[in-house]
Amino acid sequence: MTQSQTRGALEMSAAMLISGSIGYFVLLSGQSPFQVVFWRCAFGLLALLPVCFALGLLRPGSITLRQALWAAFGGVAIVINWLLLFSAYDKAGIGVATVVYNTQPFMLVALGALVLKERPTAQKLAWLTLAFAGVLMIIGEKPQGDYLTGNYASGVLLALGAAALYAGAALIAKKLKGVPPHLIALIQVGVGIVLLSPVLLAAPLPQTSGSWASLGALGLFHTGLMYVLLYGAIQKLPTTLTAALSYIYPVAALLIDTLFLGTSLHPLQIGGTATILLAAAGATFGWHLPHLRRAGVKPQSL
Hints:
Blueprint: H1 3-19, H2 22-29, H3 33-54, H4 65-92, H5 94-101, H6 104-115, H7 122-139, H8 152-175, H9 181-202, H10 209-236, H11 239-245, H12 248-261, H13 267-285, H14 290-294
């Protein structure tokens, strides 16, 4: 990998590890998905605004009108994506919902091939297929957890819908190459505040310091910091490598769901987790699957 891609891989890995704890903080807040998303955007704006100002990104010419409109359009997708994913947590479980949500790399690779004309190598497609097998192993068992209250199938469908929206937002981020990721994230949380302000007016404010602390963490840490890392990485990496590193996210979420919320993993889910990790490592470091090499498959470069 080039130096830029190495940096992008580190940024993507850090963003995915941070993302893995989102569900835990959503539950800790005790708020509805609409309230959580609004306050995530509000605190994210507070985190990003001074950073953008200090970096001189708020001056005229930092972004064109066309780019700002693309960023705003991506913001709509991101906000609805959050609403669907957060609504899935108490139905499918944080770990399983996050794993289902991470079918988005396959959607992203498909969109990249169709829209950006990127041609993934045979080896990377094979690793992504193996990772998908790991996803199927994990969602094949319904989780057991005290906080689960809704319909499991509806939770899976909500997570799939969130995945499709994230893939679209990621593709838009690639079209914004050269635009500072801080500015992209700032525009998108601003869009979220505008979209969800009517919900805030109709809902009571959080009543406990614990709720405010959880919402603040979701805005400052899981949005302000995480999205700067994420968009910076997406702009540096090919789509297939972005997709591979995304699998760090569900594994981290599964571990947090198990260790902190007491949700038990079935043996099949443990095997699926290991499979995903193997596939992510293989795609990231360019490992070759022996059967493809023996078959004489010559992957075409991106």
